Each structure stands twice: as structure tokens, then as C-alpha cells.
Amino acid sequence: MINRFCESPLWDANRTLIRVAQGQEPAELVIRHAKLVCVTTGEILDDTDIAVACGRVAYVGIAPHTAEHCIGPRTKVVDAQGSYVAPGFLDGHIHVESSMVGPSEYARAVVPHGTTGIYWDPHEAMNVAGLPALRELAKDAARVPLKCMITPGSCVPAVPGFEDTGAAIDAHDIAEAEDWDCVVGLGEMMNYPGVLAGDSHVLDEIDVTLRNGETVTGHYSVPETDRGLNAYIASGVSCCHESTRAEDVLAKLRLGMYAQLREGSAWQNLHDLAPAITQHRIDTRLCNLVSDDNHPQTLVSEGHMDRILRKAVDEGIDPMTAIQMVTINTATCFRMQGELGSIAPGKCADLVFLDDLHDFRVTRVFIDGDEVARDGQALFCPAPFDWPEGMTHTMHLARPIDDNTFRIPAKDAKGNALEGDYATVRVIVSSSGSTLTREEHDQVRIVDGELLADPAHDVLKAFVFERHHATGKFAYGFAKGFGIHGALAQTVAHDAHNLLVVGDNDHDMALAANELLECGGGEVAVQDGQVLGKVELPICGLMSPEPVEQVAAKVERIEQAWATMGCTMASPFMTMGLLSLACIPELRLTDRGYVDCTKYQFVPLVVQDDAS
Amino acid sequence: MINRFCESPLWDANRTLIRVAQGQEPAELVIRHAKLVCVTTGEILDDTDIAVACGRVAYVGIAPHTAEHCIGPRTKVVDAQGSYVAPGFLDGHIHVESSMVGPSEYARAVVPHGTTGIYWDPHEAMNVAGLPALRELAKDAARVPLKCMITPGSCVPAVPGFEDTGAAIDAHDIAEAEDWDCVVGLGEMMNYPGVLAGDSHVLDEIDVTLRNGETVTGHYSVPETDRGLNAYIASGVSCCHESTRAEDVLAKLRLGMYAQLREGSAWQNLHDLAPAITQHRIDTRLCNLVSDDNHPQTLVSEGHMDRILRKAVDEGIDPMTAIQMVTINTATCFRMQGELGSIAPGKCADLVFLDDLHDFRVTRVFIDGDEVARDGQALFCPAPFDWPEGMTHTMHLARPIDDNTFRIPAKDAKGNALEGDYATVRVIVSSSGSTLTREEHDQVRIVDGELLADPAHDVLKAFVFERHHATGKFAYGFAKGFGIHGALAQTVAHDAHNLLVVGDNDHDMALAANELLECGGGEVAVQDGQVLGKVELPICGLMSPEPVEQVAAKVERIEQAWATMGCTMASPFMTMGLLSLACIPELRLTDRGYVDCTKYQFVPLVVQDDAS
After folding, report:
1. Could you give the maximum distance between any two Cα atoms of chain A, in Å?
2. What single DSSP character describes residue A225?
3. C-beta separation of B173 from B179 below 8 A
4. Mutate to test the interface with B, among A285, A334, A351 (most CBs of B within 10 A)
5. What is the DSSP secondary structure assignment for residue A209, as one 8-state letter?
6. Strand pairing of B530-536 and B593-596?
7. Integer CA distances (angstroms), A172 to A168, A179, A207, in order
8. Which helix (H) or strand (E) holds A240?
9. Cα(A341)–Cα(A40) distance, integer angstroms
10. Which of B14, B198, B282 has the CB atom closest to A203's CB atom?
11. What global pTM score does this model have?
């Protein structure tokens, strides 16, 4: 559907627009002397005027024509002399939750950077609190001018049967959500094995979306670009942000799929993907630029789509092409080109003022004709949102946690006590900047019937506690790659967002876990009984009610704490959060145990002699 | 809405497609070794295989990949070695009625030329027989593979209050029609003065279409490209085929409107419009190529969209760009890019085999994966359609016509007898190749209380009879420019499709009129009591049940008759049919009288002394 993200639908506004265009009624806003970024023709139209009424463009006057005839005594007139005026930037695939704030605060952070619309998959919050969370998030979003267009999480839980989440979503839920005004499609279909296997659960979700005429967004992250990719696209998925090589991008475009080139905080693919455009003479109409995940620090210090545009131009992409990739192409991907993505009569008056087309410094932003940001500051300030208890009290453990909780019994999979001084165990090996993990087999000591961590060799204990429904489920294993002394805990841990604790000693681990239980979730770093850093995320254990700048500062501090504790990783918190992400190879730990994510089966902690 | 023009909707087909793509189930059709015209990237992909099932593309195998794994014992395998394979051509704006056949026969004519889908405004038939006609036409269309996507006539009658039609359409009718599967938008909004004036009648039609998420097609034919065009686009109209100058095209594209470059049988704009593309470095994504009106002879002797592609390339447009303008761009204009317009997994398997990209000789055509034409011949042959009486008996006059009917009383507007030997009368002057007419004041003789034609000075009598509801209304005047001796009659006469008779003597005029009354409408040429040519069009007085080749031959013969009778015009029948087209300047004759089409008022036949 169209029109519902605008101040007024075109069928209500058009009578006024017609009069304004002809000078029979004054405009509410007239922007004069702009260098218009005309994304439909790919031209810069010098000295262009734009008249706005009812939140929509009524008239575009290209020199020698002007909008003087649209100016009345109460018309706000803005001189854009020297500025480029582009359509508002659209982020075609984003998870607000990764910025650790709610959508209204997110809007305050990104709108000053020129973002006027986001296509948001809130699957993190939905894993915790289901469809009701989506409804509340949409309510918060509706209080700010940013157009939050939602694609509900399609894979909740991400790996059914291997983890416990707060909620589960099926095709009936999707059908219900698609009737809501905020919903424009289906969230990223991460379960591509399910699609390729023809699983009813996933295809039913796709089908209900297709029937509704909406967009099925994708997640196809394997290098196979022939039969599997064809089958995946044939299912009805029409865009994908998971390319890591230029050849992935080319393959998707050639098969008619929108390739959403990602440049997030942690996953920065643009350098590798840009050659698909710069080294091939191809039509780029199916290319988008997207961020996927933004850390709060990235938003505060580097920006949002303006940052990605800078990067795109740095990589050699033509500035007009880059802007098309965050405006008309993105709107067309979601079949909303009639409303968004260009500056033209009848379209929403979502406008971005830019000093130039290489630094993309945003000076003013208008949404639905209202000025909403100037010189990097939002002109709106959302009051705190009253989140329901179902989203603010999400830490539910069956039993209290103390030091003893973190004892790992020296038993085999059948419960038989292990003999000897050492046991061979599976260890998850993480590495900086990679979403993949590796399975390693290491020796750990057996002391008093207990398996010990081995900090000298960076073998830490890892625990995951189900924290949504107090089922009492938990599992443990060992993790390598973090190099710390102390303990770390977080509830962001993907995709079930259970309570994940990693550490080299039980006392710090218990303290870390209890800190998060007390504050409703978040992340914490503990060493020798001291809390070195903490980011409270009491909304679903994922988001903070604080301003993004404060959250960013806290994240900054906790990352310094990580370094103090011995970790040299680039995004340690993010990498740690993937320990439980059971949809990506190779070995992961969920609240149900170790998952071999190549064969999709549980595997025991202890490696017996007959296994190698 | 999507999906309803395909063999099976994607949500029904996708499970099969997924299996076929992976070689788990054989395809119905595999095309091998094609030079794929990849319109999404603008590339030719050499040696590409295409596998099809359920009428849709399941798999596209780009070399070195092949579709061998999709071939089973009953798979039809087609070797495309040496051929380009392009997406089926779409005509973004067409009136089937101008080809003088019904839609199924039209399909038989155009499909062998690569056309797989048309966006059809059936306003001619609707002027005669209203919404019921649309329903019947859609039924006929549904019997052939061509995808007939209908935009119901928005301006029926075209000029309310100045003419009498068989039916009238309002927003309620449009709302009703938009629930029908065949309808995808609103027909050309010719009443741009109404739009600019904010008339409720026209805006209500637009609004009901916008609410439905469908496309409002346009008709903005004046050279004004500033305030008026802005207002027109702001109303919600998103495409227009009425550009006559390159600057019109540029203005529309810059204002976000699809510019549909027309190359019809009579109105051939491409030569003038192509420079908008060839002389400007612009993005052409909003450009379509359309035919608008095709004479039957054009279809038979020159083709359809293949003809326009040839012309586009002759005019210097890059072949890939030209093909995009009849495929992906057109589908996107109607927000149907998810179904049509490219060859990609999940899309309808509408495919055209071409020998090259300059002559565009079409050798094979597939729709929904079925071969439907080969070497210029359709492989389907629709049986005669059983048109209802409301569409085959549309000639209803209140009184019989005889020679006396054509006596023009020598009276002024008040009914007073004119004195003297001569009277000054308004004359409509037509000229070859122009849709415009001119008003001229000439002297005609008064004999026995009657105004006479003046064949020596090419001043012919012209009569228009209301023929839909036997109201008895008729009007008369004089016409110049045809240069004939004898009489001509037709029921195609735009836009009310009343009975139009032109001639230099009453006896031939009466014979011509009665010939058409007898055969249910059409066109006829009579001289000295002999019928020199006749094209019977008994369906609504607009279309023939005969094969298009026979209709073309009859039209050919009648055009020869015109020449025999003294006419030197290029498309005399078409030009004559515009005598009553009251939506274009300057002077026209409807069944209600002379209309001054610059001021929109009736004007009298006789010019009194005080008028000049």
C-alpha cells in the first residue's frame, strides 16, 4: 500500500496541490534557487524552485520558471542558493535495535543526516516480545517524522528447534501484521535453506506477503549464485543485502533481484562490492545502499546514509548514481516510487540540503514539508515512550545465579563422570571482523569433577541462559578469541537474545549476569569483582531509553574496558553476540547446547575418543 | 494488483519453481544457448539457458552454468543458438478499437510481433456501450494468451454537455471496474482542463484509482510544461503519451512523470521525441514506447512494437535502451515489475526470440511459457466471439434517412429565413496529418430555402446523427479539406462515435448513411449511387468480427476509393473521424451542433453580419 506514511494521502491533497501549482492558493513552503538532484533523469537542475503544500510537492519550477506565484504572505520561503537539494535518503534494510535505542530516538539520530525513511526489520525485538513489540515500536515511531516502514521479522526464531526465544512468528502473524499501516513487506528471509527445501513455514510467510502485493526482503549469504540463488529468487524474494563479493551483486542484478549494497558499522561490504558498478557498464536501477546495522557510536560520530554515500563516492561510484541508490531505487524496490524517492509534483516533500556531492554534508532536512533538522541537529525531541511491561521486564530466569551456577560438570553426554586430569572439549573460536566461527578441540583440566577454563590459552567458559520464559534452560561450552581476564555478559546475543556470559572465572561471571538481571538487560564487563563498564538496555534487553549520545558514550567506555581486560578485537561486543547465532557456520552455543551449524545438529561439549 | 495476468500466481507456482531451479523436478520448457537481453543490468548475456515451469521462469543459467539439470524426458527443449531472447514487449498505451478488430483478433495480429502485454484504454467501445462493453471485451481478451491489461476510459463522454454518447462513466463506475481482474489503472485523463480546474468528476475518478494503488494514465497535449503540467502531475497522473516535442519529454521526465513516446499509425512522434534521449545524457528509466493507435494495415504490413523498436533504433536510440522502454520501464510504470518486463526467476515466462537488435525480426514468441507465435504467425486462432446484442446492434436512429434528410434549411440561429442568394457559414477546415482543425467563413448559395454545398470550392456538407439511443438529435455544418465528389460516412467518428456523413450531394449521403445503418456501422465511400468501398464494423460500430488481414484489405480498398473520389489526404478516414472530436481545437461538429473548442461554447452555422 501507499500513502500512509505521508502527512496526507495524495487523494486528499491533490485538489490543494493543483491550486498551489497554478498560483491560485499559496504554498506552505517554497524553496528557491536549489540545485535540484533530479534522480528521475540523473541531472542536476540548477536554480530550481520547489513549492510544497499538504506535506507534498505541488510545483517544481525549473529555471527560467520560478515558484514566485506560489508565495503568499504566510508562505515560508527558504533560499537554497548554493545548496543541492536531494530527495530524502531511504535506508532499504535496517535493524534499529542494533543502535540500542528505540525508533523515535533513532529518528532523532539519523534524520539530521538526511535519512527520511527506513525499511526496518525489527526481528530482534520480535524475538523477545513478538508481534506486540512490533505494535509498540510502531507507536513510538509514529511520534516522529521519520518514515518507519516495517518489514516484520520472518525468521523468529531464526533456527527453530535449536534455541528458545521470547516469541515465535508464523504466517498467520505475518498476515495479521500486514494489515497494519506500518507494514510494507516481509523481513529478511534468513532461512534460505528452508526456502530451498520448500518448507511450508517459510513459504507460507512469503506467500501471504506476495498475495498482499508487498515486498519479500531477502538474506542470501552463501557464495552459491546459480541454482540456489535462482530457486531463492523464484520463491518471490526480491532484494538481498547479504552480498560480500562483486560477483554476488552482479549475479543478483542479472537475476532481477535488488542488490542492497551494505555498509554497516561492523559489516562493511562496499569496498568489495563497488567494483560491480565501477568496473562494469551496467544499469544500476536495482542497486540500493543499505546500512543493516549501525552502532550508536557510528550514528553519533559518522552519520547514517550520508556516511554511506561518502563511502560510495570514495569507492568511485558516480555521486548521482549513489544518490539514486538511496532514493528512487530504494522506493522502487518497495513499489513506493509513486510516493517517495524523487522530488516531483505529488510526491512527499522529503528533502535534503547538501553542501556538495562528495562530503554530503547535510545542512537542512524536510519531511512532509516540515523542517525537521538543521546543521546536524534534529528539530524534534521525542518525549520518553511509555513501553509496556512486556517489553521492559524481559529478564525471566528460573533460578538465581551465583558462582556455583558456572561450574561445568566433568561429565560426558550420557552423564557419566569423566576420568583423568584432562578432557577434550569443543571450543568456539571467534575472530575479529568475521561473522563465522570455527570449531576447535582443546584440552581442559578436570578438577574436583569440574571442567575448568584455561585463561592461559584463552579458553573461556561460555554460558547461555534462556531468559524469556523462565524455563530454566541453559547450556555451556567454551569460547576462544576474546583474550580477556574477567567476565562479559550481554542480552543482545543473536538471534534469541538470551543471556550470554563469557569469562575466565565463576565469580566475575556471576556478577556480570546478575548486573544484567538487575537492570533489565544490556551488556556489562566485569573484572575482579568490579564493573568496568555497563550499557543498560532495559527495553527488550536490546534498547535503551536514553539519548543515543549517552548510549554511544557508554558503549565507548565498555569497549575501552574490553581492551583493558585484554581483548584486541575490533567490535568485540558484536563478535561476542554472534557466539549464539545458530544460523551461520560453524559452531554456536544456544540455551539448548552446542549446535553444529553446518549439519544442524546438537553436538556434545566433550569430544569422546571415537570422535576426532 | 499483481499476478492475475499470469498462468498461475507466484504464490501457487513458487514451490514448483524452487524444485525445478535445483533440478529436483523437470522443467516444462528449457531454452538453451540464448543471447539473453538482460534489461535489469542492460547487458547481453551470451549463451544463457532459461528453464520454465507453471508459466514462469524457474531458472536462468548464465554460462558456464546450464539448465541441463532442469531437463526431464518430457521437457520441451528449444535451441536458441544465434537468437537474442528478450522479455515480451509491452505496449504502455493502446486503443485496440483503432485496429478495427476485437481484442482476441488483435492478439493474433500483434503477438507474432513480440507483443505479450498491452495496457489498453477501451474508451471507444465504452463511449458506445459503457461498462458492460468493457466486461465483454475482457472476456474476449481472456481467450487468448496476450495479457490485456485494461485502464477503463476516464473521459466518457470526452466533452460532457457537448455531445451524446452511448454511455457515461463516473467515479462509481471506475470503482466498480477496478475490482475486476482485468483492470490495472485509469484510462487516459484527457480532461486536463478539468483536472486543472479541480473538477470533482475527474478528480473523483483519479482518487478512487489512487486509493486502489493503481496507475492513473495521462493525456497532457498542450505545450505548456510549467504550472499546468505540474498541477496535472500533482493530481496523481503518472504517465503521458501526448508529447510532440523533445522538450515535452524532458519536462515530464524531470517532473517524475513517465513519458510514453508515441509512434502510432497516424500520430508518429518518435522522430521529434528521440532527441530527448539521444541528445541528452539522461536516465531513461521513465521512458516508454507506445503505439496509441494502430491501423489494421499497419499491424499487417509493418508490425507492432517491433516496428516501433526499429524506428527507435533508426532514430539513434541504443537498442538496449529501446528494449528497456518496452519491457521493464513499462512494467514499472504500472508497478508490475515483479511480474513482467524482465527474464528472471519468478517472472512470467514471456519471451521473444529476435534475429538481431536493429531489424528486430521476431521469430518465436512465448507467453507464460507456451509458444504462441512462430515466424510471424500466431499459433492460436480464437473462435468467433459471441458479442451481446448491446454491442452488435448499436445503430439506433429515431427516423429513417433519405435524401431530404440532408437538406440544410437556410435559416439563422433563431429560425428566421435567410434572404438573398448567399449566406456566410462556418466551415471546419481539416488538413492532412493534423489533429487540429481551423474555422473558416465561406459563402454558400441559397436555393429554394436551402443552403447548398459548394463542391467547386471543396465546401462539403457534414452531418452528425446521434445513433445510440434514437434521440433524434442531429446537427449539420460544412467541411473543407477532403476534396471529394460523392459521400463518406463512418461511425468511428471520435469520441462519441455517432454517425458522421460528409458529401457534396444529398443522394450519395443518404446512401452512405443507410449502408452503415444496415451493416451496424463502419465506414463507407459512395459516388454517384455506387458503393466504392465499405468496411463493416458491426461491433459497437467500431470493430469487425473478421480477421485483421481482411479488415486491412477493405480499409486499403476504401482508401483507394477516397483517392478515386478526389481526396489527396494521407489518412483521410482518420482525419475525417476527427471532425467531431470536440476535445481538440478549433471548430468541431457534434450531434448537438458546432462547438468552438477553444472557448467551449456552441456556435451557429450561419455567421451573421455582426459576427466576423
Report:
1. 92
2. -
3. no
4. A285
5. H
6. unpaired
7. 11, 11, 11
8. strand A237-240
9. 9
10. B14
11. 0.95
